[in-house]
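User: Predict the complex.
Assistant: Input components as received:
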Amino acid sequence: MIANVPEIRISQAQPQPELGSPEGPRPADPALAEVSAVRSFLLSRGNSAIADRGFQWLMVLCALSIFGIVVLIAVELVLRSQLAWSKFGFGFFFSAFIDPATRLPMYWDPVNGHFSALPFLYGTLVSSFLALLMAVPLAIGVAVFLTEMCPRVLRGPLAFLTELLAAIPSVIYGLWAVFVLVPLLREHVNPLLIRLLGWTSLFNDDNPTGLGFLAAGVILAIMILPIISSLTREVMTAVPHSQREAVLALGATRWEMIRMGVLRNARIGIVGAVILGLGRALGETMAVTMVIGNSPEIHRSMLANGSSMASVIANEFAEASSDLHTSALMELGLALFVVTIIVNALARVLVWAVTRGAPAQVH
Amino acid sequence: MGGYAGSAGAGALRYGDQRVGEYKLTTEHKMRARIRALTDGAATGLAVLSTLLVVAPLVAIFVYLVYKGASSLSWAFFTKNPAPVGEAGGGMANAILGSGILLGVGSLIGVPVGISGGIFLAEFGRGTKLANAVRFTADVLNGVPSIVMGIAVYSLIVVPQRHFSAFSGGVALGIMMIPTVCRTTEEMLLMVPHAVREAALALGVPNWRSVLSITVKTASPGIITGAMLAFARVAGETAPLIFTAFGSPNWSVALNEPIAALPLQIYVYAISPYDEWHRLAWAGALVLIVLIVLAVSLVRYVTSRGVLKGAS
Amino acid sequence: MGVGIEVVSLNAWYGTNHTLQDIHLNIPANHATALIGPSGCGKSTFVRCLNRMHETNPIARVTGTVRIGDLDIYKDAKPVEIRRRVGMVFQRPNPFPTMSIYDNVAAGLKLNGYSNRRALDEIVERSLKNSALWDEVKDDLKKKSGASLSGGQQQRLCIARALAVDPEVLLMDEPASALDPVSTSKIEDLIFQLKSQYTIVIVTHNMQQAARVAEKTGFFLNGRMVEFDLTHKIFTNPSDKRTEDYITGRFG
């Protein structure tokens, strides 16, 4: 068979090798000595299997420390809440001691050793719910504006500003809330609410300080807003452009395109973002402590003083008057721990389902 | 080919020369179109309003901080310890130092462990179930309230030692940093192109050396950025310090004694009844926020400007 | 000086994909051997089996024997040790981006603990000269980063890096396919000069390139080695019809 390949030129200068010869020409070269020095050095280095394995194990250990931290927290909290648990059992969370004299519940009485989690569960839920009520529409509005409507020039700076909101520490929010927000509520907002909505019995004037559930709800709303907003933006941007174009091609207005093409597709992720915001609100401590009024009571009025699980721990832990008191606080901490883990895990699963495995941004 | 002809309101649908149908915009159509347009406008308006409502408190907070804080800042603030209750003068020098020490201890614990965890996730455990579990747990841990961390460390260290200490405060901050640093390190390492790792392996470089001197080194701007982010985040934390570091009116560098911290001091002063302390709280808040904003802005600059180009 | 490579019954898998089927081959020392074949025929996998890079993929598997010199690389040595004796140049130049030109060339030695500064200087110089890059970079050795060079220069830098550890075998996986014609011809000249000192195995898509630089050529098809013979015979008088079809352009 003769192959007809005129373009391939074989260089004439190639020496014809003898097949099977294991060695080629060996020029006398002073550099050769240096060269074999390198080779013998490398040959002597061994295979570093021990170093490799040791290094790998060290890295694994550090990664496992994450589990270790969770276990550690759980163990410590469970141990220290044993006392309260053995005394009150599950009733800690849904019953309270009724004072036989007044027929009224005494939720939190360190002096006589009566402890119930009810007012704190109530306070946590009410303040978080208020916060979500105010934050979610605003956060989604901001997210929609930034992803779909905002002129490109403004997008960067505005996004940066919302991220800055997330960077402000809780205690500074609390500081601002105490000296700016609370007086504002006290002087202007609360009287208005009492006048307009007092008939709902959600706003009464027993507490003229301006502190209370509403104040806590507002400052919490400001604090969780950046998280919900930035996660919502993330899931909205994850919706492929083809979805938007399909809706537009049907003659939809821009808002209809956003509603049908983007929000509908992203709604699972948005729910996840909201739940993540809820998780943050549940555990927020410093700002809430400073404005919620710190009273272990349950009132229907949003303007009443109250207390949340995190705030009572912050307030009373350092000066807890008895072992039972400390243990009750620890049990509250354990409840907070479990609840936030569940809420956060749920949120992460939902967000992951939409953004599909892209490594979650650290929030 | 297709189209319609006729007055706005009614007409014929044509395909070429053929008349294929008719259309008529009824009053219902016109009204619906108007509603849709209005809805669109309203939605846009609401979105803009939301943005303004969100940016407003941010601006308000910053302006107020600067206004109230700057007027209370003085040289004394940075150099003096707190004066006795009710007296004028005094500063937060010990709190600034205390925060520095606590953050130092925390970083010493949090950064190496976090980076190593990230190295595991990116280099050794990629795709494994263990890595997925670690990653998920780290994200969930990030959401645990810092006060819970605080009382756990209290139970672990303060109770057996029978005293509050800077060490316990540092540990609390450190374990808060670990999940954050771990995740950002993983993200940065994943950005290093596979070709770089292959080149190192093909040279016969031991794996541990390749990971450290090549892969980690290539991703180091991003890794450092991630550490700074975690640092800025715990710098403002108060709750975990209340029962560990506890705070102190004195100048202290000892690790096994209570120590002051900037956010903690701000909290104590803010809820106190003394105007003088309120002023100091504002000043402290301003200092704290400036440091944090600087760190966050630097992080943003590094990540957005592609100064991470070492990885490409 | 180079050594010969003997391959016996080599089989390789990527997961369930039987990428290489029963390869037998004798690569002569101190010569250049080209491996040609259509995309996906397994020639890249084959060279990656020669320096045990194939197994860095978690789903990869290898059976058979590869002897470099008189060393069975799968039985008698660890991968790290083999890779110091068998150098590799990749299709896309991959200099270490955070290192200077000097550090790039010296990387194979420095990262293995070599610390003799003066000797390193000489080795770097010699390697860069051997890869025809010395004149272009000799003034910026420590100032410029490896990634700041042009494509062709980067590839020559990678060759210098591979040469610095004085391997016995040099594997080149389509080293010029990402480069412009001028850089390509520079690299081909390089191979021509280097083959007297090292055993070179070069994978190439470009048959003219194989004809220019290699004494022997192997034709791979669908994971099997169809024909392995002197280059001029493969290209003028191949024994197997499939070889003839490939080199006349009937497929691939």
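Chain B has a mean pLDDT of 86.
Let me know if you want any component modeled separately.
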